[in-house]
TrEMBL record:
SUPFAM superfamilies: IlvD/EDD N-terminal domain-like (SSF143975), LeuD/IlvD-like (SSF52016). NCBIfam families: edd. It catalyses: 6-phospho-D-gluconate = 2-dehydro-3-deoxy-6-phospho-D-gluconate + H2O. Gene3D superfamilies: IlvD/EDD C-terminal domain-like (3.50.30.80). The gene is edd. This is Phosphogluconate dehydratase. PANTHER family: D-XYLONATE DEHYDRATASE, PHOSPHOGLUCONATE DEHYDRATASE. Its cofactor is [4Fe-4S] cluster. The lineage of its organism: Bacteria, Pseudomonadati, Pseudomonadota, Betaproteobacteria, Burkholderiales. Pathway: Carbohydrate metabolism; Entner-Doudoroff pathway. It comes from Serpentinimonas maccroryi.
Length: 613
């Protein structure tokens, strides 16, 4: 794969933002690099360990593996798996560990499951108590990953995870072992069923009592119908995009369906590649790959594809785990110059299968690189230079081969070249004003809905809004101000159950918007929503001073969120309180009190692991 002879001039804003991130991260980054360097060993990690430790580590391994392990020459690969039957995206992982061990053996090495981590399906917990554990489950996954890898008998690792908080959690935990080479191993998307757009329409009809529950269930089951990741461009598929554009996963591997020959060949190649790296004198380790430039490339990928707003929290935490400090100013400034090149639901009607067929990640990365909108000089699991991630895998007489990705999009309704973007900017904005800082993804919001000026409707739960809708109290213009949904209040749940209700009011011509210190799903889109508002209501954020009827101006494109209350009255108001006791008990929430108490600001990653540093 030839490196581009003369890479184009890097866009000045990309260069400026990157330099600002480097400056901001200088001290935390130096600590991270020092700690990682101190963990490197010249020999196999198990060499020189105590005999009892080694005997424990390999007691259950078959004799053939023990022979290899005793020689202390060949690499031993640790597998962290997020398999469970609950997530359609992770169910295909069931047989991966046995297969990966067999491939390692075939390749003269060994592999072991170092540990399993939990994985929550936000589709199942959406709107219910479990969603209040969702954000923090990311940090639990990070802790679980560290527990697995800390056995320290591994010379490389494979990370099996796809969905929302699982990839962020795996990366946060794995970065503690950044001295090792690692790859993520995807399992691929579900085949296309009922389109996401059709599914959303039936939901809105049900919310208005126009269809019955049987019809709704049939539509949902036609959309979510088999193994594989849901096909909308939510947080899970934003993770897949990120892993490829950050060079952490084999190029073109994200959106190959489970159970196919090519999928199998790619999983085998992941084992082959991690062994190549572990056997090399100077491998690309995880810490070599996750640099400031790689993280900025990740932000750019999110903006160019209308990726999940959850990554204005998760990507911040992932970067922080490598000592890299990014914030919403970085997202906002890059969004002004990064063109939107894809229209995948909720930013359009297509799904990830259409995107992949139209040219997929290879085309996207090639286009952005060619326009000087990505850093080429980064490390990847394929070697040095992001150009290596513009390849796509194929089977050449049954053998895995790599070729340059398509140079033309096969469908410009889904995927466009830089010369003809859907919009010249990334459609993500930092909102400022007298309520604090929040973000809005307006790439999925119709232009006529991007500026709303309407009276506040103040609520303390999403159920309260759903009840008002049911009682037909919402047939008017309003800005729903939904408070006490922040990380320290109730774990910052996604409030995606509001989408069909608010979407149906928008479709009937009412001017509505949502302002909240909570989150939305990556699958949310059409409703203008100022989310992650900080400081949160529980910490006396200004959102707790808003009263019913206050006029609220929400202007996506101007980046303004302002309550129009006279300044002296506004400063004289005290923050209201709410009874949060229902979020402190039941369904595991007692166990997460520590995470709520220690959670950092959403703009700092919303994590108890790093606070606000
Ligand atoms: O951030 C995300 O992408 C969401 O958390 C997603 O993973 C979740 O499952 C949605 O709830 C699915 O959308 P529906 O609830 O509309 O099916
Ligand atoms: S994409 Fe969301 S709904 Fe689908 S399996 Fe993953 S977590 Fe569950």
């Amino acid at each position: 794969m030839m490196k581009p002879t003369s890479p184009p001039q890097l866009h000045p804003v990309v260069a400026q933002v990157t330099q600002r991130v480097v400056e901001r991260s200088r001290s935390t980054r130096a600590t991270y690099i020092q700690t990682t360097a101190a963990s490197k060993r010249p020999q196999r990690y198990r060499a020189g360990m105590g005999c009892a430790n080694v005997a424990h580590a390999f007691a259950a391994m078959p004799a053939v593996d023990k022979l290899v392990l005793h020689q202390e020459r060949q690499p031993n690969v640790g597998i962290i798996t997020a398999y469970n039957d609950m997530l359609s995206a992770h169910q295909p992982y069931e047989g991966y560990p046995a297969q990966l061990r067999a491939w390692a053996r075939e390749m003269g090495a060994t592999a072991q499951v170092a540990g399993g981590v939990p994985a929550m399906c936000d589709g199942v917990t959406q709107g219910y108590e479990g969603m209040e554990l969702s954000l923090f489950s990311r940090d639990v996954i990070a802790l679980g990953t560290a527990v697995g890898l800390t056995h320290n008998v591994y010379d490389g690792a494979l990370l099996l995870g796809i969905c929302d908080k699982i990839v962020p959690g795996l990366l946060i935990g794995a970065l503690q072992f950044g001295h090792l080479p690692m790859l993520f191993v995807p399992a691929g998307p579900m085949s296309s069923g009922l389109s996401n757009d059709e599914k959303a329409k039936v939901r809105q009809q049900y919310a208005q009592g126009l269809v019955d529950r049987t019809t709704l269930l049939a539509a949902e089951e036609a959309a979510y119908h088999g193994p594989g990741t849901c096909t909308f461009y939510g947080t899970a598929n934003s993770n897949q995009m990120l892993l490829e554009i950050m060079g952490l996963q084999l190029p073109g591997s994200s959106f190959v369906h489970p159970g196919t020959e090519l999928r199998q060949a790619l999983s085998r190649h992941a084992m082959q590649r991690v062994l190549e790296l572990a056997r090399s004198e100077s491998p690309q380790t995880l810490a070599d790959i996750v640099s400031e430039k790689t993280v900025v490339n990740g932000i750019i990928g999110l903006l160019a594809t209308g990726g999940s707003t959850n990554h204005t929290i998760h990507l911040v935490a992932m970067a922080r785990a490598a000592g890299i400090l990014i914030n919403w100013d970085d997202f906002d400034e890059l969004s002004d110059v990064i063109p939107l090149l894809t229209r995948i639901y909720p930013n359009g009607k297509a799904d990830v299968n259409h995107f992949h067929a139209a040219g997929g990640m290879g085309f996207l990365i090639d286009q952005l690189l060619g326009a000087g909108l990505l850093h080429e000089d980064v490390q990847t699991v394929m070697g040095s230079g992001l150009h290596r991630c513009t390849l796509e895998p194929w089977l050449d007489s049954g053998q895995l081969a790599w070729r340059k990705a398509a140079s033309q999009s096969a469908d410009e309704q889904v995927l466009r070249p830089v010369q003809r973007p859907f919009t010249p900017d990334g459609g993500l904005k930092l909102l400022k004003g007298n309520l604090g800082r929040s973000v809005v993804k307006y790439s999925a919001v119709a232009p006529e809905h991007r500026r709303v000026r309407a009276p506040a409707l103040v609520l303390d739960s999403q159920q309260a809004l759903l009840d008002l809708f049911k009682d037909k109290q919402l047939e008017r213009d309003f800005v729903a101000v939904l408070r006490f949904q922040g990380p320290q209040a109730n774990g910052m749940p996604e409030l995606h159950k509001l989408t069909p209700v608010l979407g149906s009011l928008l479709d009937r011509g009412f001017k509505v918007a949502l302002v909240t210190d909570g989150r939305m799903s990556g699958a949310s889109g059409k409703v203008p929503a100022a989310i992650h508002l900080s400081p949160e209501a529980l910490l006396d954020g200004p959102i707790a001073k808003v009263r019913d009827g206050d006029m609220v101006l929400f202007d996506c494109e101007a980046g303004l969120l302002q309550v129009e209350v006279e300044a002296t009255e506004w400063s004289a108001r005290s923050a209201q309180r709410a009874d949060l006791s229902s979020s402190e008990h039941g369904f595991g929430r007692e166990l997460f009190a520590f995470f709520r108490r220690q959670a950092g600001l959403p703009e700092c990653g919303g994590s108890a692991l790093f606070g606000n540093h």
